[in-house]
Amino acid sequence: MMQAQMKPMLERRKETPEQSAWWNKLSLSQKFSASSLGKFGYELTFVRKEGNERLAVLQCSGGVAVITEDGEINTSPDIVLR
Question: What pTM was estimated for this model as a whole?
Answer without folding.
Answer: 0.74
